[in-house]
Amino acid sequence: MKRTRSAPRSKRTPQRTAAMTRRRTGNRRSNVSSKKKKSVPARKRRPAVRSRKPRRLLFSTKRWVGLKPSSLSNGNAYQEFGPAETVPYLEAKGIGTPVSGSFQAGTELSPPAFTAVIKHARIWGPSGAVITPDGTVLCDVSWEYRWRFLARQRHSILRTWKPYPLKKIEGTVGHLAHISSSNYFHWLFDVLPRIDLIRKSGQSVDLYLFRSMERTGYRDEILNAMGIPAEQRIYATPRFHVEADTLVMPSLVSRYRWKVYAQPVTYSKRATEFVRRELMAALGPVQSAEKPKRLYISRANAGHRRLLNEPMITEMLASQDFTVIHPENMTVKEQIHTFASAEAVVAPHGAGLANLAFCSPGTKVIEMFSPAYTPGYYWMLSSHFDLDYRYLIGETIGKVHPWRGGMDIIVDPGRLSLLLKLAGIGD
What we know:
21 strands, transmembrane helix, Glycosyltransferase_61, alpha/beta
């Protein structure tokens, strides 16, 4: 039988030759060829450096500027104001054993305030996290109250980052956003003092950035009085992501620590004095004989931290000539006038007590707390302005609130009556 001779190797079919080539080279040649021809859609291309996810955290703006001395020649700047401030605090007066870790006499250090100027920085998210051109999050001006943040470990931006569309803003932006600025106290003492730092820096600001929030009445009243009109304001929203030609960043004016919850260590006395001086000048005069002298601040309209036996307490206080007020229903000017005329203030812990900054020295103050939440904000204000401060610990009652600071309380009228007598304002 005649054999059929196979074709020479050079004359084999192209398909078979290609298959053998793929086996010998591990498909490398075909991969290279396909990569050259394949085009990457624009939406999948790697974003520019300035719009990418942050690369690192740094808890010192001063250090970032110091690590990049060449950046100073590019228009960046860092300026400190005044020496460190030693703030004395007197021991608060109460009934029985003082609260452990709270209201103790001592001194606290407030570091020098500063203003930094950074070219082409980004601001991201509703609280205005600051990202430098090299992808560093400046945590000391991107505040959070989480324990990991206060322990200088992490910032939530690394977990919640989303590449929102980047918009560019021409001109100079003054950064005044703060995570808690929807609260009246934090608006007064964590936002407004930073306007003073921008003024001291000598920088001319085109737009001021604030955190967006629902309650705008007191904010608008204050900013109008301070000469910042609506057309100069922009607001950080949930999908906020902008790059400013020039960003002016004033430092925060408070220090916190984590001890079960975020607790204030100190607020700068210079900062609180600025708020008092600025608002009393802008919204004064403050003295009026028609205002009540003894005030009880009600939280009946609040959604949390209410005094559940308030009718019993207000009846007892009425016998001592106290008047019930609801600061949320008053203008800022009315609040300033009312507290400037007060000789005694009683209240559950709440933002209405921020108006203690407008009281006269020697005003009697009694603040009522839940045993689970005793932050010293208003004890600090009282120390700054020489007020006669006392505290009373109540009892929690009712369903558990998801936030320990939101628990409703009841207060023993007999203990409150005793504290009034000790303060010299009760029978």
